[in-house]
Design goal:
5-stranded mixed β-sheet, globular, 3-stranded antiparallel β-sheet, alpha+beta
């Protein structure tokens, strides 16, 4: 079997339900370069960790464009300028510091903590919405609407506008899937473009309103914050808002769905979680190692020659970092294919590492902890209807497209 066929199989949807045997095979060639002009694929934990911290590895979208390999897979697909996750220091650092001042310490140390009660209310409302049903699609009825609602509340989108907001998000998120982009019709493309335009216009109006009348929400902070790094421009505020919406949404949907799927496959931990909600912290960390929602990081470029295990990756080359393979590396984790929330060391790559470590990680963690705890507590005798479930096409952001769960009754 050739290395080229291995990489094709990894991205082939036929293997989406269980790519881990392929990742094990991939780790036997720590630096895989299948063909001239193709990416250099890195799969071992320590090499990925090192490259995520290496300043010779660029996230700047213009470097990908320079080698003719740019792809509309991030928030910039909305037509806005690149968000800070696709910029390098020092501009990345400036924008991230400004955004972080609206999201957490030291300027807003209690923002997420104060959001906890609202998260519980949203989760409770979604679970109550199951009504008398004894079978639900966890994706469509819970994991998908939850993070969109949270982002709306965090940014300060008026409650009466949330349905419009979700209607715009659906086609935008769908268009981020490479498989959808390659097969979408002219009508689907027009719908996605119209949604991007409507969302941009809506957010621009909301930003202008917050500039005139600031409120206690993140959008107001982004608009009015003036510190050592200056202030964001209107376009930078819009790009950051869309980043929170799009990037945070898909990651959290998959983390919650992968989490419930894993717990239903390991019912002993589901029972423990029902009895002890605090176990959710360790469960979520192990999920980020065992079933990370972001499998691959593909938007990286070398800006200088880099030596990895005796292989020179030339300047200008594209690098793929297979986070999910690194998370199952036996050189880093004992018994890596075993789901074990009681591990003493779960320093995973689920949110990346280095300067580009996931900006929304604290929120995604909290959302998933609350979601899984409440689902475990309230669903009586939950069980999978189909295993494996149908998976999304996307090889980068891996998760079930639907997850049908049956249960005996809904507990109060």
């Amino acid at each position: 079997m050739t290395h080229a066929s291995l990489l094709r199989r990894i991205t082939d949807h036929a293997h989406r339900a269980d790519p881990y045997p392929l990742y094990e095979e991939l780790r036997r060639t720590p630096v895989l370069h299948e063909e001239e002009g193709g990416p250099y694929v890195i799969s071992s934990y320590w090499d990925i960790e090192s490259l995520l911290h290496d300043p010779r590895v660029s996230s700047d979208a213009t470097n990908l464009a320079a080698i003719g390999d740019d792809e509309p897979g991030g928030p910039e697909a909305t037509g806005l300028p690149p968000s800070f996750i696709r910029l390098d220091p020092p501009e990345h650092d400036r924008l991230r510091r400004i955004a972080n001042s609206s999201f957490g310490p030291p300027h807003r140390p209690r923002r997420l903590d104060l959001l906890r009660g609202e998260l519980v209310r949203i989760v409770t409302g979604l679970i109550d919405g199951f009504g008398d049903a004894r079978q639900i699609d966890l994706v469509d009825q819970f994991a998908y609407p939850f993070p969109v609602t949270v982002i709306c509340r965090l940014l300060g989108v008026p409650r009466e506008d949330e349905p419009r907001f979700r209607a715009w998000v659906d086609p935008i998120v769908a268009a981020l899937d490479p498989a959808v982009r390659s097969h979408e019709s002219d009508d689907e493309r027009r719908v996605a473009q119209e949604a991007r335009m409507q969302l941009g216009m809506y957010l621009a109006g909301l930003v202008e309103q917050r500039a005139r009348e600031p409120r206690d929400d993140m959008l107001s902070d982004l608009v009015t914050r003036h510190g050592p790094d200056g202030a964001m421009t209107m376009m930078e505020v819009l790009s950051t808002s869309v980043l929170l919406l799009i990037a945070g949404h898909e990651t959290t949907v998959n983390l919650i769905t992968n989490g419930m799927l894993t717990l239903l496959r390991h019912p002993e931990y589901l029972h423990r979680l029902r009895a002890d909600a605090d176990l959710s912290v360790r469960i979520v960390e192990e999920l980020l190692r065992y079933e990370p929602p972001v499998q691959l990081v593909t938007q990286r470029t070398c800006i200088a020659d880099i030596d990895v295990r005796g292989v020179t990756i030339p300047k200008g080359s594209r690098i793929w970092l297979v986070l999910a393979a690194g998370n199952r590396d036996p050189e880093r984790f004992p018994e890596p294919d075993r789901f074990d929330p009681d591990r003493e060391d779960i320093q995973h790559l689920g949110f990346g590492s280095g300067v580009h470590i996931c900006f929304g990680a604290p929120l995604a963690r909290l959302e998933t902890q609350i979601a899984l705890s409440e689902l475990a507590r309230r669903l009586d005798n939950p069980r999978l209807v189909e295993d494996p479930p149908p998976y999304r096409q996307n090889a980068l952001l891996r998760g079930p497209r639907h997850l049908d769960v049956a249960f005996d009754t809904l507990l109060p």
